[in-house]
Amino acid sequence: MQIDKRFLITALAVIAGCANSTETKRATSELDVNRQRWADQKLSRYEFTFNRTCFCVPLTPVRISVRDGIVIGVTEIASGRSLPAAGFLTVDSLFALIDHGIANHYAEMRVTYDSPLGYPKEIYSDGSMQIADDEITYTVKDLVSVK
Questions:
Q1: What is the spatial distance between Cα 25 and Cα 29, in angstroms, rounded to a whole number?
Q2: pLDDT of residue 96
Q3: Per-residue pLDDT tens for 47-106?
Q4: Nearest-10 Cα torsion for 100, 104, 107, 113
Q5: Backbone conformation region of residue 118, classed left if phi is above 0, alpha if psi is from -120 to 50, else beta
Q6: pTM of the predicted structure, to 2 decimals
Q7: What is the pLDDT of residue 128?
Q8: Under 8 Å between Cβ of 72 and 146
Q9: In the predicted model, what is the mean pLDDT of residues 33-59?
Q10: What values do phi and psi take at 84, rounded to 5?
Q11: Strand, helix or coil for residue 64
């Protein structure tokens, strides 16, 4: 008996999807709770230290300043040098990255949230087990409100 490969691939995808549905619901619930916790802070101005670790363009830790949801300043911590703000992330952008990873069923998505404020302190994602070196870690620390 010959099994249609397309049928087998579809069946395996459905089974994998069912196995991941509980994990997806848990991750979505955790994201929603912490996103709301962050929104409840009503921080319109804040700063944080940010780092990205991956097999990509190197980034040394930076201090990001945010006002009204927009990155207004980025300073490289080691040198004190100002960097262009384009491409740097706000806390809301980090929540969007997590949401994207969950919605697209990344192979692995681990998030640690700050308990009192709800922002993501660390995000580790691996989009696909079949792709080498696509893992990325974002780290946020020393977040403070700015007057």
A1: 6
A2: 93
A3: 999 998 876 776 799 999 999 999 999 999 999 999 999 989 999 999 998 998 888 777
A4: 30
A5: left
A6: 0.80
A7: 58
A8: no
A9: 90
A10: -60, 140
A11: strand
Q: Please, what is the Cα angle at 19 between 136 and 118, to 5 degrees?
A: 45
92 CB-near residues (< 8 Å, 6+ apart): 38, 69
Rg (CA), the chain: 18
Sign of the dihedral defined by the CA atoms of residues 78, 81, 83, 88, in that order:
positive
Tokens read off for 67: 């006002």
Q: Which of 74-113 are b and which e, b meaning 16 or more Cβ less than 10 Å from the residue's Cβ?
A: bbeeeeeeebeeeebbbbeebbebbeebbeebbeebebeb
Both structure tokens of 86: 């384009």
Q: Which residues contact 77 (CB under 8 A, 6 or more apart)?
A: 49, 60, 61, 62, 63
